[in-house]
Amino acid sequence: MAVLKAMRRQPTIPLALLTLVVVLVLDTTGQHLAARWLATVVVGAFVVWTLVQMIREMLHGRFGLDVLAIVAMVATLAVGEYVAALIIVLMLSGGEALEDFAARRAKRELTALLERSPQTAHIVEADDVEGERVRDVPVDDVAVGDLLLVRPSEIVPVDGALLTDEASFDESSLTGESLPVARSAGDAVLSGAVNGSRVVRMRALRRSADSQYQQILLLVRQAQESRAPVVRLADRFAIPFTAVSLLLAGLAWALSGEAVRFAEVLVLATPCPLLIAAPVAFLGGLSRSARAGIVLKGGAVIETLSRVRSAAFDKTGTLTRGRPALVAVRPAGGFSADEVLHLAASAEQYSSHALAEGIRAAARQRGLALAAAEDAGEVATNGVMARIGGRTVVVGKPAYVASLVPEFARTDLAPGEAAAYVAIDGRHAGALVLADAPRAESPGVVAWLSAHGVERVVMLTGDAEATATSIAQTVGITGVHAELLPDDKVRLARDLRPRPLMMVGDGVNDAPVLAASDVGIAMGAKGATAAGEAADAVILVDSLAKVVHAVEIGRHTVRVALTAIWIGIALSIALMIVAMTGVIPAVAGALIQELVDLATILYALRALRGPLTPESDIAAEHPEAGPKARRDHEERTRL
Questions:
Q1: DSSP state of 232
Q2: Residue 68 has pLDDT above 70, yes or no
Q3: Catalytic residue numbers, as ranges
Q4: Could you tell me the pTM of the whole model?
């Protein structure tokens, strides 16, 4: 089945192969005229098709190697070397098939952006019998003013006004804010936000097409359409190589006075080394990146990665893990840190709040076994209360805990930090401070890029200025742009110099800027999102160090491809000079050219291998990140 699909996509290969076999059979049986006519018709059709494609490319401002291929095929047919013409057709169609296969292989893991957008809304309607009923409708059918129900963990379908007294939403994919955002009745809620742990009601303020999520999709489309096309690596050699080849062929004809000499030289000048070497090298680079957990969407991405001179990073989920982690336990008088953490983590087993997992994980890291509760219950958006080992434990918001204990004190928080307050047996027991700490490898990634030719590194984030600046200082970034909307990110990215620009992000709000950048990289380990569809590369494992690996693979692949191309050019020119003397017949030249192809392919396969900087080195062995970055990271990760 796969073979049949491949043949349908590239019908020229089986047609040329079959024609070559029939022509050889006809030649061996003495039917030379029939063989020549059959080859002429097939090759002529291929020449016409190639000419049409070449004209289309030229109308779009792209000039490739097709003119040299057309001249070579016409010349071999004109002097009766139709077997050589068929061999040229096979080699050219084989190069196209390799390019097509490379592109399809790179894209097959990716999902469509529109499939990730909200699809269904729950409309609450009045009912004479039951009082009200809930009806599911396509999100495009929601009208302004409709009463909507949003269930726990569902995506908000359209922009609306909250009717429920209190609710919590995860807006990290929209704004970059890593901590859950509390909303009260009357507050606006954006489409694309993820509801928390309770059912909420809201009134639709906008139709789907006018809501936040769809506006981001529109930005993505506009950014993709406005980005300039990338010129293929081999096409940069097209005009000079064509000119040299035609000059040598014309000189051979002029010196010998034989038209066949023109064809004999051009057979060895067919651009197969250029057409095949780069696709093979890029296919090797794509395969190598896939093994490293990086999906690259084609050879043009590899080229751009190799030339990156500026880099921009989102904060939440990119430079940080996007998961709040415990950074401090601040017990009140009469309680120990381990006691507060142990009882709080045991109670948080019965909570669905976003901070609960960070508290439980910190207790496990300290070797504190979580205890089962005799009784437990959660007060939605406020906190959890549990009875553990005969002790009453409350963990929650400051107002909620303060209402239950006679003496209460808030704790000081740095930018980007949040606190869960704890009460034990009716007494204020302290606070647990959480923050979205930088990834261990972030300082090393920034330092590596700065030390390896990336002249400018900046942060583009929707998070608050104070939080963004704190994280940037920790990881070694000096250029910070905070509190940005998606279109602000696109505008800033377009103005960043020098180019090319690499943008790394992970959320829905990053999709437009990823599409607008010269090369966009999405952190896709937590599942494909709008960012994954808009990006040129998707990192499938939860490690920012893969950004360094992507750049390394891009540079190594392009070096190999360029070397393979120069090997092909050098061998072709040397053989053309020999063919000018008339010692290499056209058919022999076409077969010799296959050996040149083999040499370039074997060298191009070196793109499959090559050393990559170990992730441990990226995370730990870059003093350029500065002592402050290392101290801050060690302090934040000590727990």
A1: P
A2: no
A3: 314
A4: 0.67
